[in-house]
Amino acid sequence: MSQQKYVIDEMISAKSIAARIEELSHDIHKEFEGTSKLVVVGLLRGSFVFIADLVRELDLPVEVDFLEASSYGDAMESSREVRIFKDLRGAIEGRDVLVVEDIIDTGHTLAHVTDYLKTKSPARLKSIALLDKPARREVDYKADWIGFEIPDEFVVGYGIDYAQRNRNLPYIGTVRFTDQ
Ligand code: IMP
Ligand code: MG
User: Among 3, 68, 92, 103, which residue's beta carbon has the most beta carbons within 10 A?
Assistant: First the structure.
């Protein structure tokens, strides 16, 4: 099955993303100042670019770990059933934890992941998402920090994919299907 053709229109520039991450890092600093260790947990795969830029702005004792949860597969619609494919490598009991996500859409993924991480008894558990589509929310979930609120449009770039493509774009763009 060949994929429908599409073009990508820039929505958020690389420069705006960098500026916003700098602001967010100040807030995160305020929250975690004095921590003996902050475990920054990236949700694979969409958060890999965001987490890389974010941790480099954090002047804190940081460890990085990853967790893979998935509700989308290769489709444009959430399946609403969240599964953990890959668990953390390290223990987070008694630790400060920051979960890093690319987008909050229906809210199922982060709601499920944070409930799961709470069972591991972290000292503090906070979450940050680069993008939020509040119009799409199905479960009541609010991240502690959000980069940008965006309208109900499918986006790619800066780590975020459409059927595994376009993660390498340095900016966030919307997907617009063309006739041919
Ligand atoms: P949620 O469980 O519906 O909140 O879905 C969150 C996940 O869906 C994100 O981690 C993304 O992987 C994916 N997702 C949501 N919106 C988009 C989008 O516009 N483009 C690409 N992936 C998306
Ligand atoms: Mg994701």
Answer: 103
